[in-house]
Amino acid sequence: MINKKMASLLNEQFGKELYASNLYLSISSYFENQSLEGFANFFIVQSDEEHGHAMRIFDYLHDVDAKIEMPAIAKPPDKFKSTVHAFEETLKQEKQNSKDIYTLVKQSLKDNEFATHTFLQWFVSEQVEEEASIKRILEQLNMIGNNKSALFLLDKDLSNRKATTE
Ligand SMILES: [Fe+2]
Ligand SMILES: [Fe+2]
């Protein structure tokens, strides 16, 4: 069992994870259009992971006998000024998502929703990793500047990212 307020906040988070998944597909397409296939691959994997996060919430809500209400998903941006800009948007998205997760954690403690509190811990750790990995690439991009061959090497490196089971 889970209280109504907690269930509805988790349902909203389910929608936010789906939005993130769509945003990363949009960014993947931006890179695909420039033949930066490593970057495009990185964002396909990123999108799959966000879908996985949404599914964790989907499964959890069913496990605790709450109803899923399919949320409307806003259209993500599809124009990006540069590679750096696309990663800045990604970092912004991840920082916002960390805040949203913290709001859920606070609510779970306030309402003595201990099972939900435990469920959310995975997301707290995941956000630390997500922000760190995006920040690292953003720093590398800023080092690279206009150096096309360095960008090509990073693209090659990012083509190695594989989907995880998470
Ligand atoms: Fe996520
Ligand atoms: Fe994320």
Which key phrases capture this entry?
mainly alpha, 76% helix, 166 residues, binds fe (ii) ion, Ferritin, 5 helices
What does this structure look like?
With 166 residues, the chain is mainly alpha-helical. It is built from five helices and no strands. The protein has helices at residues 4-32, 37-63, 83-110, 114-144, 148-158. Helix 1 packs antiparallel against helix 2 (37-63), helix 1 runs antiparallel to helix 3 (83-110) and helix 3 packs antiparallel against helix 4 (114-144). The longest helix has 31 residues, at 114-144. The chain is elongated, with a radius of gyration of 17 Å. The mean pLDDT is 96. The structure holds fe (ii) ion (2 copies). One fe (ii) ion binds at residues 17, 20, 50, 53, 97.
SSE arrangement:
Elements: H1 4-32, H2 37-63, H3 83-110, H4 114-144, H5 148-158
Helix pairs in contact: 1-2, 1-3, 2-5, 3-4
The chain binds fe (ii) ion (FE2) (2 copies).
Short recap of the structure:
By secondary structure, the protein is mainly α. The protein is 76% helix and 0% strand. The chain is built from five helices and no strands.
By CATH's scheme, which homologous superfamily applies?
Answer: Ferritin, core subunit, four-helix bundle
Shape type: elongated
Beta-strand percent range: under 5%
- If classified by CATH, what would the architecture be? Up-down Bundle
Q: Assembly type of the shown chains?
A: single chain
Average residue pLDDT: 96
Q: How would you characterize the largest beta sheet?
A: none
Structure ligands = fe (ii) ion
Relative helix content: over 70%
Reading the helices and strands in chain order gives HHHHH
Number of helices: 5
Distance between the termini: 25 Å
CATH topology: Ferritin
**Tally of separate domains:** 1
Structural class category: mainly alpha
CATH class: Mainly Alpha
